[in-house]
Amino acid sequence: MTPEPELSLLGPVAWGADAPGLRGRIGALFAWLALREGRWADRSEAAESVWPGRSESRARHLLRQSLLGLRRAAIAAGRGDDLETDGDRLRISPRATTDWGFVRAVANGSGDDADRADRLRAALGRFRGEPLAGMTDEWAEAFRAAALACERRLALELGASVAERGPAEGIALADRLLARDPFDDGARELRWRALGALGDVRGAERERREYAARLRDELGLEPPAVVAPRRADRSPFDEILAATPRAADRVRLLLAAIPYFRDGGRAEEGLERLRALGPGSPRPGERRLAEAELELARGDSRAAERLLRESSEVPGRLRVRSRLALARCLMANWRLREARLTTLEAVRTAAGSDERLECLRGLTVLHE
Prior knowledge:
Distance between the termini: 44 Å
Strand content: under 5%
Low-confidence stretches: 226-234
Number of helices: 18
Mean pLDDT: 81
Order of helices and strands: HEHHEEHHHHHHHHHHHHHHH
Shape: globular
Strand order of the largest sheet: 1-3-2
Largest sheet: 3 strands, antiparallel
Number of strands: 3
Structural class: mainly alpha
């Protein structure tokens, strides 16, 4: 049996890449439901999310009209069974997959095997325009920002793997990113590397000088270093651990160093170290929270949410931090209403100025 086409979110929103595009409020309702990935939604929640600021009666009226148009479009595309209702609830069937789901799975994958480059190309091919173009609500803008950031990450990963042996593809990938942001340093560096691999070293140097002048003249910035420094094979943290004989002290030091791994691009390394401690090591609740924060830092918000919900041993002094981490997971999965409620729960349980400040930072993140 041939699988149904992926629902299209990374270009014109539609029941499939070859189906007619869905516009206006019908397209907005379709996108909002598709991003829920098969989870049921109350009609009141759908109306409030897709038409914020409207009166309840007006939002309900728009929902009924849009749902009727969406059902007609689903039937025309041969997907009538994928739009499901159950009393006051509605959803797009969990059987339906999205192009965003495929892209996210590739982004969360890894490996140096030969298939990785093909998977990256397939994921980048899902982007057929600006995601959710023309939609300006908070949830749509959050998704668009995340989708474009993911596209950049995939393009740079593929570019890094082909810049030397396939420089023409590397240049095309760089130009793709520069068309959106001419001040993307990563894309510039990829283009210069690929030009050098083609033998056009003078062209690369000329572009470097022109870009440096543009940074100074237009933004008042100094250009970035030509080559990013490589990380040492041995982390400075290794030296600290080697000098700490007691296991309990090593656990304490590792947990204290979570920001070093989380914010320094070393989330994978931090996760390996935490998991190496074993299930019987001290402070299991705090370790579970740290593991969730590192999963979130490396982009796997679902694994992070699972860890946070499974943990029942988080110390009281870390409950606010745990709730805020859960709110960030929910935000990453477009469950904005739950994210706000979770953040407000953290605010209510905050005690002392430090915890209130942490809540304020969490609210700022959600606002952005």
